[in-house]
Amino acid sequence: MSGAMASAIAGVAMTAFGRRDESFVELAVEAGRAAMDASDAGPGEIDAFVLGTFAASTLGRQGFAAAVVADRLGLRGIPALTVEAACASGGVALRQALLGLETDSARSVLVVGAEKMTGSDTAVVTEVLARATDVGSDGFKAGLTFPGFFALIARAYLAEYGVDEAELAEVSVKNRANGAANPHAQFRSAVTREEALASRSIAEPLRLYDCSPISDGAAAVVVGSDDWVRDHAEMPVAVLASEQATGPAAADRLESFTSIPAAKAAVRTAYERAGLGPSDIDVAEVHDCFTIAEWVALEDLGFVEAGGAAAATARGDTALTGRLPVNASGGLLSKGHPVGATGVAQLVELAEQLRGEAANQVAGAEIGLAHNVGGTGGIASVTILGRTR
Amino acid sequence: MTGRVVTFTVIHVAPAEWEPTPYGVVVVDGPDGRVVARAVDPTWLAVGADAEVEGGWARPAALTTDNMLQS
Questions:
Q1: Chain A touched by B17 (CB under 8 Å)
Q2: Up-side HSE of residue A195: CA atoms within 13 Å toward CB?
Q3: By Cβ atoms counted within 10 A, which residue in A182, A249, A284, A373 is the most buried?
Q4: Which residues of A are catalytic?
Q5: CB within 8 A of A39, min separation 6: which ones?
């Protein structure tokens, strides 16, 4: 995005994540309406609607989702579209909204991310998610699940850098402790290192507590031009950069199993746009769909050197009181991972952090970064937000 | 083709209709590029082990104590 500070976030909202009785549409409407209320904006004041979701028409059993949610919200006579980028759907949805603002075709856009996953059994969910890759690839044909894919990354990482697999548990322990204080989190109980290491194996070396859960939920933000948001928020949150990049969409096309190229490309451009670097970030929400994914993210985003994430975690650098708190919300591991909602929920957490309203408030947070990855890294998005006063 | 195992996993939880589990998924870095394959016997898997791939299945090029991991 060009023109830093030209766009900002007004109201934000999210549903509780977890096993919910509500339908896909009901969850999306709950979050969307709450974000509009938080922006003191009625349906007539929203110029466009973007919905991020991966599996609305399969797991959510709702096709034509953007039109249906817009209709339920009373959003009439405006553009509405669904954005699908697997688990990065939410982050990419925000970027599409910002592009609309940048072209002056809208002054305000409602962005909702939503997913309904628990209505299907685990085998079905696993297969639907596994299709977020090139289904013609050898990996898919070999039966590679996403826990399996991230297990491949974990095994390669541990071998490359000589890290004991037991160290992965520290990520789960940290994020579960953070999530315990988050009223929206699916898991609100801490786990010990011993409990994590004793949990059942899912895909070696990943165990149950290394994996994010199957979740329902929705999150929403209202973004607008700077002048529109000043009239709709006491404390606007500036959008300093929102970038997206593509990468290998199949496991066997990765040149390295210790990095996600799309994330590196997206963050490089985001730092350039914002005129910032890794050391400027005060708080980060990264895509910890599995414990190993947080380590890879820390390195791809330039927060630590390659191979340094395990030691940084062990030192407490990424803890709430550390040098760079990561996943203060509890992350996907604790907060839950309704895949289309995840990228938007990261923005909700960062906006609350920058306003000083977060459940696990990071003292003095002024710049926040969100990192959202889809599939095997076929798409990644990075958003940088800034406190305005 | 022959190559070298660059990473592997043994998947314990997968849709039941796919394949009996556990089975290994191995990425072999060989002369024809990367290939993801199932492993004939997951117990031999090790990063750096030599492997052969045929028909989507990988097996050790030479089964030695160095490249065997007894689970």
A1: yes
A2: 9
A3: A373
A4: 87, 337
A5: A10, A11, A108, A222, A232, A233
Show the tokens assigned to A325: 């708190």
**Element (H or E) spanning A274, and its range?**
helix A261-274
Closest in B13, B34, B37 to A142, CB measured: B37
CA distance B42 to B26: 9
Q: Is A64 left (phi over 0), alpha (psi -120 to 50) or beta?
A: left
Contact check, Cβ <8 Å, B7/A202: no
Using a CB–CB cutoff of 8 Å, tell me whether B20 touches chain A.
Answer: no
What pLDDT is stored for residue B20 in this prediction?
67
What percent of chain A is modeled with pLDDT above 70? 99
Of B10, B17, B37, the CB nearest to A138: B37
Nearest CA to A72 out of A10, A14, A15, A24 is that of A24
In this complex, the residue of B7, B34, B36 whose CB is nearest that of residue A155 is B7
Report the sign of the C-alpha dihedral through residues B53, B57, B62, B67, in that order: positive
Chain A residues lying within 8 Å of B8, measured CB to CB: 152, 155
Q: Touching check for B40 and chain A: CB below 8 Å?
A: no
Q: Which of A166, A199, A251 is nearest to B25 (CA)?
A: A251
Among A109-113, A304-308, B62-66, name the one with the lowest average pLDDT. B62-66
B32 touches chain A (CB under 8 A): no
Tell me: the pLDDT tens digits for B40-61?
Answer: 888 889 999 999 998 889 998 8
Structure-token pair, residue A108: 């305000």
Helices (H), A132-260: 138-141, 146-161, 169-179, 193-198, 226-230
* Closest-CA residue of chain B to A203: B11
Task: Specify the residue for token string 């490089």.
Answer: A268
CB contact under 8 A, B38 and A143: yes
Looking at residue A108, what is its pLDDT? 98
Distance from CA of B25 to the nearest CA of A (A): 7
ipTM: 0.91
Q: What is the pTM (predicted TM-score) of this model?
A: 0.96
Measured between beta carbons, the chain B residues lying within 8 angstroms of A212 are none
Give the Cα separation of A14 and A37 in Å (integer): 12
Instruction: Please give, one letter per residue, the 3-state secondary structure of A334-355.
Output: HHCCCHHHHHHHHHHHHHHHHH
